Amino acid sequence: MHVCRLRAVVSVTPGRLVVVQLRYSFRVYPNGPQRCALARAFGCARVVFNDALRVREDARAAGLPFVTSGELSRKLTASKATPERAWLSEVSSVVLQQSLRDLEAAYRNFLDGLKGGGSKMGPPRFKSKRDTRQAIRFTANARWRITPGGDLSLPKIGEVRVKWSRALPSVPSSVTVVKDSAGRYFASFVVETKPTVLPEVEPVIGLDLGLGHFAVLSDGTKINSPRFLRRAEKRLKRAQRSLARKEKGSRNREKARAKVARAHARVADARRDFHHQLSTRLMRDNQAVAVENLAVKALARTRLAKSVHDAGWSAFVSMLEYKAVKFGRSLVRIGRFEPTSQVCSCCGVKDGPKPLHVRVWQCAACGARLDRDVNAAVNIAKAAGLAVTACRAKVRPGFVPAQREEAGTRRDGQPGRGRNPRALAQGAEVNVHS
To answer: Of the candidates 98, 87, 92, which has an alpha carbon nearest to the alpha carbon of residue 158?
Structure first.
């Protein structure tokens, strides 16, 4: 099974076309020596990150100026000549330099959050060797390549077997090797491509996200909520109970931890696949999709927290956002304080708030019998349709964050070779079904 996690970054230059940066992830299967080499690279990247973070923290505590990235790079080069850090030369130097870039991105995200220019992020924290997720990145300077046989050749690691599920749309600029908590390895490629503009269809469809139904469309379609976490709770409880009974530090406890991680990974993969299929279908069938800007963080602090997290609204809307750029569609957000459930979609009369148990109501003005969720979806479509008509232009979203961050910022806290990717840079059609 391939996992496709994509990040869309829109680059708009006067007189030039929009460029979309996508990230494709494929499952890789390293052998025993390659897993040892990857573990060594993960450890070296972690040590370089922690050493650089310690240098900056010590300088801050002593009241010294901020240590620049160039100075950190020179300290890294000098440390390789010392007996204590001579083993850093056993891995690719690009991996170590990219670890410094991750630290720089972590500080930038933290400072931007303090200035109010982005989401609030916590300061960079030291990485632990007990972290179950590890990642290293190779850029073009590392001279990695895809062999004619379809393997991924990495410096000082070897040719790793990849299970290809599709051809890449263009030559990738970098590859990130990730080991997740379940012990699986992935190769994540970053490629740049032009948006695939689809033929124009109907203008706007409203989308009301909920818990009873995952989504209700303004045309009356109701999409049931799969509730992947709820359905897997019995298996998860059994695995978690087995983990709690194992002695800390034992090999059996590590095996039980990996079993719990695999169970959660299956739930996350099923949810992600559902989001991909639904978001792609909505974007292909509609010229614009309108959604409500929900306060997911606030809802996740209520008694409905588990159901809110199980639905994954934020991840779904993020997929809609980058696929709107990819397919030349529009995604319109309306304010969360719009009274979509209080206004009659037929006559526009505001009938006031209603308890949550009222799912069907009758308008006192026109007598129309309205379904609460469908009525809200129609009102969302109307509000978004006015915005699109007023500007007479497609809504172009800005930066769309990656599905998984590689920088070190923390908030506060069956194998098969698959298809041969020889059509890597030959403009082959990409079968995007997710």
So the answer is: 92
